[in-house]
Amino acid sequence: MEYQSAVLSPTIGWILLAVLGVLWIGLGVYWGRKAKGIEGFMLAGRNVGLALGAATAMATWITSNTTMLAPQFAYELGIWGMIAYSTASFGLFLFAPLAKRIRRLMPSGYTSGDFIRLRYGKAAWIFFLMISIFYGFTWLISMGMAGGILMHALAGIPYAIGMSVILFVCVVYTLFGGLYAVIGTDYIQSLIILIGIVIVGIGVLTQANFEAIYTDLKVERPMLINILLPASIMAIFNNLLFGVGEIFHSNVWWSRAFAMREGIGRKAYTLAGFFWLPVPIAAGFIALAAGALGINVTSPDMVGPLVAANVLPKIGAIVVFAVFFCSLASSIDSLLAATSDLITEDIYRKLINPSASDEMLRKMSAWIIIGLGLAAWLVCLPRVGTLATVLFFAGPMVGSTIWPIAAGLFWKKANAKGALLAMILGTVLGLISYFELGWYTASLIGATVSMLTVVISTALFPSDFDWNDLNEAHPETTGGQA
Predict the structure, then answer these.
(1) Helix, strand or coil for residue 221?
(2) Chain mean pLDDT for the chain
(3) Whole-angstrom Cα distance, residue 479 to residue 257?
(4) What is the C-alpha separation between 141 and 390, in angstroms, rounded?
(5) Which of 86, 175, 450, 461 could form an SS bridge with 422, CB 3.0 to 4.6 Å?
């Protein structure tokens, strides 16, 4: 890699890494002391309030993909690409009523896997776990890659070292604090992210006004302002469904629904959606200014940090560094905790050791967090593909889960065989379209096939599910307070 983009010296970069890393680890250990028992570690005592609930949902959704992939969307697909990424906010809006229903139907639930197992049976549960764990690992890889790209773009720190540090920091404080540490750090990270994005936006406008940006695009890259660009239009629907699928199926979001107090989930996710909606538009606008500012973009997924770093003086670049670090950490920690919960609860406790004690489950969860971090590090080392190609490979898989989950929560007639078939067909046909047509079609096709399968199978073979079957009793645990 070239170091042309670095605006901070490696020395300053290392200092920032050390300060932020120690800060998050310290806060994670401090908040983690509240976690009493496995329920406290996994679900923060099921007592998270509105402010922390909305902040953690918003911060978690402002991933490395928002701050880096949204600019890439705008740079490659233009205005529609920028808007396409913002449609992921509908995932938060649509999950809000689901969060309320999840908390009511499953007051003792732990994971999204619990729902699929109780609602559709073992076969659908196993296939769902395969999708969810694979997606979670893919998401983790994309953020590890983004960490390395970020450190190189802003401070010239080698990709492998930057990636290793961000993964290590997140693994350590998640390991000690569980969901308490994740939610607590997310609250602070969300404030830093919002303030930082405003600062970057002002910096761009001080060096290139709207007219200059539009003129440059019209002359140099007119396709980016073409409102009929087919790939961009497809990307809008594809990204919308991908975002909905990501949230509907992922234990990252289900764990928060279980962790929030009764009546909080719907409000928290709705507020998070409104706060998150303008973020990718602002990040995308930054990328569209690259040409007018005369910035040489060596890789599309680096356009965000490249522009932000070049339009601000050194102190501003430090702010940008902190924003990108927080956006990475707020998602990596959530993903490590939620995926660990899924494997610990659904695989270890349900399939391997049903009589496991709290202490044993806590130890197993810790080993899984370490294993996930190590596995992601090994895959990230060679930097496979771009952020878009890595992440959207899982698009048809998560898109195929939307309708089985939504129908399963509100429609008694939805049946187990239809749900399983919907996930299988949606995944297979979506992956075929990914390779044959393009990544921007995969989630759309996967979700459409899944929807048709669920509707047709329910019409032909209606079930009569008893909602009380979702209220499964769990072994006694020692909770905590948040």
Answers:
(1) coil
(2) 82
(3) 16
(4) 8
(5) 450
The SS3 of residue 260 is strand
Residue that is written with structure tokens 């003086």 in the block: 313
Q: Evaluate the CA torsion angle 24, 25, 30, 34 in order and state its sign.
A: positive
Please tell me the predicted confidence (pLDDT) of residue 218: 64
Cβ count near 355 (within 10 Å): 7
CA dihedral over 100, 101, 106, 112, signed as positive or negative: negative
From CA 470, how far away is CA 287, in angstroms rounded? Answer: 46
And the tokens for 376? Answer: 């992601």
Q: Count of CB atoms within 10 A of residue 259's CB?
A: 26
Residue 18, beta-bridge partner list: none
Residue 74's closest CA among 286, 385, 260, 276? 286
CA distances 95 to 266, 267, 407, Å, are: 8, 11, 13
CA atoms within 13 A on the CB side of 121: 10
Contact 258/98 with Cβ under 8 angstroms? no
With contact defined as beta carbons under 8 Å apart, do 423 and 131 qualify?
yes
**Cα(443)–Cα(326) distance, integer angstroms:** 28
**Which residues lie below 8 Å from residue 319, measured CB to CB, with a gap of 6+?**
195, 196, 199, 200, 312
For residue 478, the SS3 value is coil
User: What was the pLDDT predicted at 482?
Assistant: 37
Tokens encoding 293: 């500012």
| Distance separating alpha carbons of residues 72 and 76, to the nearest angstrom | 6
